[in-house]
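anyone seen this seq b4? input:
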Amino acid sequence: MTLLIVNDEVVVADTMKAEIAWAEYGIDTVCVAYDACSAKEIIQGHDIDIMLCDIEMPRENGLALLRWIRGQGREIECIFLTCHAEFSYAQEAIGLRCQDYILTPAKYEDIGATIRRVVERIRSQKEERLYIEYGKYTLKEKEQKNQESAGMRPEPGQVVEEIAGYVIRNLSDFELNVESIASHFHFHPVYLNRIFRREKSISIGQFIINERMKMAAILLREGRHTVNEVAEMVGYAHYSNFYNMFKKTYKISALRYIEEHLKRQEP
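predicted toks r here
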């Protein structure tokens, strides 16, 4: 996770960055801006997850900065720091989807506890987005079973969507391939591949590779697993196979991919 501290009091901002044990609260990288203009430049050049922002700042305050962020379509979580417990501030902050509001002075432990809650919320949201496709395909699978029980033959397009869902739900299966999928759906592999290519303009085998690589990239950016663990999580029993396929897909190795991602997070 990357945190951006925005505070026009330079000493306060720098001290928070130096003295709070951010890693204990799930933060890997901390950026600092001393006004809204600098904050915008950092946000445009980095992937910021959380913004810890003072409200009262000269020229452009924290609420105006958050309005700009929302106008840019960025889903950055915001925590406001302020010494004013004014309802109007809280009301506008809530309207801008800011769920956390800390009155200063605040103990570093309290700030850290709030950060941890936000980090956990972000992780939960990311996991939900990762698995939303699973839910969509599961519903379609139930619909197909209901149709089959009623004696209705599914259309080729419907079969292809079921296959796509099956692939996404089983990316970690080392034995996932055209033959195993055809066996599961009780179709001939050649026929199944033909209708899949007609609907998706891609073979089943390449679809499996693409989805595995997309999932691998997400897991590597999350930074919670080693490259070997990620390889296994996306269905590669041998690291060398994963290494070659990842490099072929993204033109760089998995380790270099992580390094490049971390560089983009640096202030």
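The first helix runs from residue 10 to 19. The two ends are 13 Å apart (CA to CA). kinda curious what u guys think
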